[in-house]
Amino acid sequence: MRYLSTRGHPVRQSFSQVLLSGLAEDGGLMLPETLPKFTDAELTAWRALPYHALAHAVLSKFIAPDDIEPATLAALTQATYTKATFGSDDITPLSALDAFAPGMHLLELSNGPTLAFKDMAMQLLGHLFEFELARRGARLNILGATSGDTGSAAEYAMRGRRNINVFMLSPAERMSAFQRAQMYSLTDANIHNIAVVGVFDDCQDIVKAVSNDLAFKRRHHIGTVNSINWGRIAAQVVYYVRGYLAATTDNAGRVSFAVPSGNFGNILAGHIARDMGLPIATLVLATNENDVLAEFFQTGVYRPRPSAETFETSSPSMDISKASNFERFVYHLFDGDGARVAALWREVEQGRAFDVSQTPEFRALRQRFGIVAGRSTHADRIATIREVHAKSGRLIDTHTADAAHVARSHMAADVPMIVLETAQPVKFAATVHEAVGFEPPLTPAQQQMMRLPQRVTCIEPNAERVKRIIAELG
Ligand SMILES: *Cc1c(COP(=O)(O)O)cnc(C)c1O
Known about the structure:
Mean pLDDT: 95
Number of helices: 22
Shape: globular
Bound molecules: pyridoxal-5'-phosphate
CATH class of the domain at 94-115 and 240-436: Alpha Beta
Largest sheet: 6 strands, mixed
CATH architecture of the domain at 94-115 and 240-436: 3-Layer(aba) Sandwich
Oligomer: single chain
Strand order of the largest sheet: 3-4-14-9-10-13
């Protein structure tokens, strides 16, 4: 199993090399040279496995045995996917949502430490990074910017891990009280929260400025854990398989998935699983008002937006203007034509749109890849949260509501529709209150977390200041 760049660079890398590197040398993203397949016999055998063993079986498809030994990988997945971390032996329970739409299910991906689906992959990354750095005798200073979910998932995955520090920038007054408490109450010596007086883009600009200082980057071992990390995508393929197995009794059945999407990371894993032979009928891509992806799948025009055209919505983890993982899908759409992908992204990097609506590949997209798309507005998600609660007694969060809303217009008889639950409603309490008239109750542990002292360094937006902090503490 070797990896190549979406833009055609001739270098090939192993999984563990790709794990710690960001972009390919030519600016592309790394993908498997060829996608392995799931066999019918494997799917049957996997029905009996606990989650961690399924994770081992699926990840073995992406990792050569002479890269990470199978016994090591088994130990890492076993340490990651535990009841202690994810709240149940099931790890990702599947529950029926027939009361809202007959045949609809929820796959719970948000029972990890930070109550968002990003824990599913990030927790594994914590174990994989620690293993790989120890093997290389190397250290890593992870620098990131977050508007909420990614930063906390990274911190909870990396806390206390050897040879790793996390420096996480967040916009000082823009996160919810719950998100602030979650991140800033951590006391681990290797976790450094930096609140920037400004908005998310100011944080992002600082990360770019520091990363563009190549000498500093090398000297201080700067790395990232952003959504283009291939290890995260590979880990996410596992729960598509798990969801399929939970919703079917034999491999003759097919299922569909509905995915609340921002950077195209979650649904990319679904696309990969389908390409590897998992019997997925349809992948329903849901966006909020920031509909750059829905627009592409409906029209063939990909038009990344400037930040001024990116709205602040009540499903904030999907407020993106360009989708960082989308390039990987386009590489598959054009059958691995790296030169063509490189040409399209030369346009994107100039801030321009591209239009592939007249190509045979785009015309065949829905048939070949099974992806359909739709958008959801604030009114839609409020109505969906309210209706799901009224009919089933269950509270869902704003992002999951976007997916449930879009999924409802793509139901097909006899094909279960699995909506991916990407966060707990308690993280977005104000909007949930607007929908149902009360806030989701906090558990005793969460109440206690809200009262803990917070540890954060507050700074003006200034990259030099961040470099000094890393130089001192990293
Ligand atoms: C990150 C996130 C998303 C979007 O996932 P992508 O992989 O960026 O498409 C959706 N919902 C929640 C709650 C998230 O945290």
